[in-house]
Amino acid sequence: MQYILERSKLFIFLILILMLVGVYTFLTLPQREIPETPPGLVLISTILPGAEPEKVETSITNPIERQLQSIDGIASMNSISANSASIITLEIEDGIEPDGLINSIQQQAQRAAGSFPDQAQDVSVEKLDLTFPLVSYMFYGDEEELAQLEEPLAKLSDEVEAVSGVAGTQVKGLNGEQVVIELDGDALAENQLQPFEVLQSLQQANQPLSLGTHSDGEQQFVLTVQQSQGIEKLRELQVGQTAVPLADVASVELTEVQADDIVTFEGESSVSYTVFLQTGQDVPSVDDRVSEVIDGFNEDLPAGISAERYVSQAENVNEIFSTLYISLLIAVLAVLIVTTAGLTLYGAFAVALTVLASVLIGLIPIPSLGVDLNQISVIGLIIAIGILVDDSIVVNDNIQRRYKLGDNTLTGAINGVKEVYPSIVSSSLAIVVTFSPLLLLSGGNGAFIKALPSVLITTILASTVLSITLVPMMQYLRTKRKKRKISDTPGFLGKPLEKLAQVYSEKVLKGVLKHPWLTGVGGLVIATALLSLALFTPFEFFPEADREEVTMNVRLAEGTTIEETDAFIQEVTQEVASEDEDVNETAVFTGEGLPNLFAASMDNTGANTGQVAFRIDREATSASAFIDKWQPELRERYPDAEIFLDTIVQGPPVGAPVTVTATGEDINELAALRDSLEEEMLTNGASVVTDNLGAAVPAIEYVPEQETLEDNGIALSTVTNQLQLLTQGVPLYTLYEGQTPYQVILKQAGITEGETIDLSAFSLPASSAASDEEAQDGEAGPPAAAQPGPPELIALDELLTAQEMTTLAQVPHQSGDRAITLRAFGEADDFEAQMLEIVDNARADLPAGYELSTGGENSDQEAFFAEIGILFLVVLLLVYLVIAFQFKSFGLPFLVLIAVYLGISGAILGLFLTQTPLSFLGVMGIVSLTGIVVRNAVVLIDFVEVRRLTGDFDIKEAIIESGYARIKPIVLTSLTSIVALLPVALSGDPLFEPLAVTIIAGLMFSGIFTLVMIPALYYLFNRKDKKQTA
Question: What CATH number did the domain enclosing 907 receive?
Fold first, then answer.
């Protein structure tokens, strides 16, 4: 220590340099609203045109899932096999490096593709990176002019995606275009062509033409053939053996494709354009760069189109951070005011500088921990400021005490640190081990809270070092320059604090020590009784954000067209907007729904689904009140629709209160089990029950006439291909017209939407071999010579028999097995218990090979509390070990841990009195108290233990002397922590208010009771220890 003090100026200069590095780190940390909680999802999608769900399941989904079973690192695997499409969603386990895993997934998916039918398109494997929307625009106005935005928006996306920090863009509501080749049946017959001949010619035409090179001895020439490009090339293509131009037998036209979404903004047709942020990027800076590009684009929009900046994360971030920075500034001012209340101006300056240096230096390693600047990390800084002041005040106060006792400049600084550094180091380690286990929290909850323990750990470690170096260095330099008389009552509240110390030591402690059993046991009884108040305290795992957006999810019956769904949602939206004057704005996304805005998600989207975003007047109502008003009302008005209203939740997304998953082999048996469970749930308290199977949809099944097919030599695949041409068409490849890509679809004219399919109007040629055999059947003699002329045509209704039926819209899987998941919603207090009882009863009657499993939001919360309970026990053990090593005692740490018990009781009391919900961050506040409140007990006991180790002391006098010496730093440090958090507690922020209330109430209650109970219990412990020794 002497070495450091004698070189104080050099070390202070080094500290100032580190502070500048900390300032740079703070200014360059990426800013965002809430911590990133990466979804860790991978989507595998494959298209099998025209295939029914069970065909997709057996041909596509099952082979891929079998291959994926061999890959480690996949937490869950869910899939949907629907008409023409297989979609598999994988969740990556925590801690797994995603890029390497995705490579393995791609390899296994490609291996499975070797067994796919020839019609299957390429497997697509992609990580879902477009999860954090940065900014979203609405382009609305004239529909014809909106339709012309496809190419301009494509060019805009190229520019925007070139901006550093942008993950991608998404356009919704814009009808695309495709090239449709529609065969004319009469023209085909006239030219003696069959559709498959046209198909072969088109596939061959898409192959790259390469004639190679040729050398004439002097030069090397590349050989090419002049060809038309784009659509014109298709029209001129010669098809069949007779080389008929395609334009003679088919129309080749650009046609509009219905978008996956119909978007309206304030009742007007719109196009939504959303930009997504890359992981780890700074929201405001990337937004500035993106806005510059889009603003330039908006300037050139046609007169009939308007642009609206619909959602901006940068605006939210700036608004939130301005409020948080005010709270941070108040916390800093609280440190200055409280420290000057009991310290000299110079001492207060030394403490404030040490706190500031601790914060800035503690920020330096934060980027390497994967933490950015968000609400959680800023709150962590506010809490840290209240805690960091403790060490500096204790050191400064003890150095001043040593100078009053007559120590010289150097000795006073050394002894002042030497006497208190064990308690400072141990109490700081207690805080570090308190927060370290929180870094081990799994899943989205762990990712969400990670910033809090990270900031507190790094700043506490910095504070521990600086408090025993920077504070004594500053006091040493000042005292060395000029010896000053040390005031007995420094600070503008010095005299009241001195009076408090005298009253506490001479009256309170003496009274406590006369009745130690009454004081100690009575305090424990009171603290234990207060814990029961938790039963009367409201609970809310993650609170709703105080935002103006409310989203509405709508799902209609399977088979509903997107136009019908849009008409329904528009009707509902207009009703709400016209009947509720608190609605300021509406936006409708029919189809796949919102582009991940407002944390609103929807599973199994399609033509029968949609989402609405309402913006309400927050001054007149709240999001929860709006939901409570309209959700039951709309469900009553429209009982055939699934309608859910929701708002932004400040935390990771949550699911249904109860989920039930039924697994088994037969999908029809599972569907029957689903129906039974759903009926029971709705009868016994559930307001809504949804599932991922959906209702059966009407279908037409074509039964092959095998004998007719065989007699005419026609393969069933030829018949099904002909049907596909007549209905949805056959997708071929992508054609470029200039720089714009278009999907090419081959169809045959004859069947239009809205009309009954008449198979008798379409024919296929019988094979020549079959015709010859029929002609010679029963005749003797040599076979007749083949007769020239067109082949015999067989009508499709002779080859197929149509029958109406119902079929499943999709086949869901979980972990490779057929599985149906039900999600139950209800409001009853014992809702979960009722639902679980229904499931238990159903298990008793399950057929062999079928299982029921349960989960849901409530189960997730129970799992979290189980995990946090285990971590809390680990925290207590670690704190115990730290204190046991300091005091070299097995029993004494239990006295210190009583302060934790008192802190928890105080936290519950504070939540109860303010009726603040016990939430996720409220629990984090209780855990945080473990490390914070032990400081006061450690500081108090350590002073007595130092006297005890001298061997010549009176236990009562030592306790009284300790109380007199330590009451001021304990009061100042506790007061600073409380005042620093008061702005957060009074801010009304539903996310952080429980955290602030638990810490403030815990500190107040524990602080008061610790000053009374710990001396009494220590006296009893010491007296018992002496008797055992004797």
Answer: 1.20.1640.10
